[in-house]
Amino acid sequence: MTIDAPKLTVVTGAENDPAARLRKRIFSVLAHMVLIAASILMLYPLLWLLAASFKPENEIFMSGIWPSLSWDIESYFRGWNAMRVSFSVFFMNSFVIAFLCVVGNLIACSMAAYAFARLQFKGRNVWFALMLMTLMLPGQVTLIPQYVLFRDLGWVNTILPLVVPKFLAVDAFFVFLMVQFFRGIPRELDEAAMMDGAGAWRIYWKIMLPLSVPVLVTAAIFTFIWTWDDFFGPLIYLNRMQDYTVMLGLRTFVDSTGESDFGGLFAMSVLSIVPIFVFFLLFQRLLIEGIATTGMKR
Amino acid sequence: MTVHAAEAAPQDAASGTSKWSRAWQNHAPGYLFLLPWFIGFFGLTLGPIISSFYLSFTDFDLLTSPDWVGLANYQRMFTNDRSFAQSMQVTFTFVLFSVPLKLAFALAIAILLNRGMKGLPLYRAMFYLPSLLGASVAIAILWRQIFAGDGLVNQFLANFGIIGPSWISNPKFSLWTLIILSVWQFGSPMIIFLAGLRQIPQDMYEAASLDGASKWRQFWKITLPLLTPVVFFNAIIQTIEAFKSFTPAFIISNGTGSPINSTLFYTLYLYNEAFSYFRMGYASALAWFLLLLIACFTAFSFLTSKYWVHYDD
Predict the structure, then answer these.
(1) What are phi and psi for residue A153, nearest 5 degrees?
(2) What is the DSSP letter of A85?
(3) Interchain pair A291, B188: CB under 8 A
(4) Are strands B58-59 and B67-68 parallel, antiparallel or unpaired?
């Protein structure tokens, strides 16, 4: 880690003193112990969920708080088909919605960000300020008129109310994230291209986007995770079971069979977070950087 | 100046009629690139905001057109609606406890991690995972189980001979299970704290050590003051998020805010008014009041920030 470097070079008088060094050592061991204990406490519920999902139904609550390992995948099969509509359908729906939202956000937010970061037009600062203000806006304020609008368009019980807004750059977070990134790209590049007669579209397509892969990937992952997790949107707009997303499916599972089939419920819960977990494993660094630079909420 | 004018004149003359077209050429790409955002902003944000303001003065059930009722919705909120008062109390309790606790954990762990710890990336990742997963329905389901009568917490307590209550169905504790769930997700503010801590120049600590300042003193005199902008930022973001929190309360209480409305979050109440009872006018008034609350809170924070937030210049 880069932050370690300055520390190593500094040898103050106190650090030569063996007693001080010992104290430092003890402190470091204590800190590690606190951190390890805290991480176990943090991850324990997740590990318990995982272990419980691989247990025969009658053993889940017998095993106490340190469940022994077993690899019974019965619950997964039972949970997958526990309801009238199987989880294959829910997963398919969730993937389609998340994929379209990713595409929409990447196109629309990068276009808006390019305009804000690079193009000159009247009222740019005003529009930018308004865009930033929508970051703070609680979604409830637009909820009901949006619902009425989508109902009048005949979009209720379709995925359109969940997907189309993404193509209209309503996720100001990503516009902001991309503006920050675009501003860091050297202006000489697009000025040189402009000298060669390239227009705004060409510069956007041939220079900005290829140089912005990291921020585009970050936005794509966050969009996927947030859409995948989203519960409120689907709850309001999707009422037929064959249109449900995984999150709605899980919720219905709780309501219908959940009280009797904990094994199946836990198994499906585990599966529902697997896609997020995979993204976490693969792109952890990008996610953490994305949060650190923009201060995004999750 | 004269040279400039002379130069400019022929150019203007040359394009004389096309002054507009030149303006168009200069501004058009900007507007075109912003076109999707403009449609979204006017059609899905600004329009609906104005429209819900109007609806908040009406009686509207989605089926017949809205009836103007003046201030009746707001009047009902403040004088004749115990559920509203209850939801305010629940939400404020939640915000007041979950946000400071979450930030305290985030800051404490960030400071432990910032001391050039071995294994920092691993620790950071482990602490971050819950906040990435936390909003999911699966985690809310897990939480129901952990705090159920025969759940994990009580199995643990049973080892010490304590028979715990059913935490989620006891109105005294149910809200606390949600506060714990929120605090459990301290990972993302922690990452922002870590980024902020990295900005503090190392030589300030060196100078302080040479002067004999203890670590404790260094924390209060250097770390915390220099970190106040990040604390401020995190506090605002987390408070707004806490006001808007919905999914966990919905799942844990089966969408009702039970037991005895002890988890009736504001957003949950609003959702039920709108989509269970179809009182869209009243729900719009609730939404506008939420907007007002958040706006007031944000304005208040910014106004008071100059007394406690330390800025470099």
Answers:
(1) -80, -5
(2) S
(3) yes
(4) antiparallel
Task: Say what the pTM is.
Answer: 0.87
- Distance in Å, alpha carbon of B188 to nearest chain A alpha carbon: 5
B110: contact with A, CB 8 A cutoff: no
Q: What is the ipTM of this complex?
A: 0.84
- What is the chain B residue with the closest CA to A175? B37
CB A166 within 8 A of CB A104: yes
Q: Does B287 touch chain A (CB under 8 A)?
A: yes
A243-275 residue pLDDT tens: 999 999 999 988 876 567 888 888 999 999 999
**CA-to-CA separations, B12 to A99, A195, A248, B89, in angstroms, rounded:** 50, 22, 63, 66
Q: To the nearest whole percent, how much of chain A has pLDDT over 70? A: 89
**Closest to A38 measured CA to CA, from B129, B238, B99:** B129
Q: Please give the residue of chain B at the shortest CA–CA distance from A108.
A: B36
In A, which residues are within 8 Å of B159 by CB distance?
A: 65
pLDDT in tens, A96-152: 999 999 999 999 999 999 999 988 888 899 999 999 889 888 889 999 999 999 999
* Inter-chain Cβ pairs, chain A and chain B, closer than 8 A: 272
Give tens-digit pLDDT for B81-110. Answer: 899 999 999 999 999 999 999 999 999 999
B residues 133-162 lying closer than 8 A (beta carbon) to A? 133-139, 141-146, 150, 152, 155-156, 159
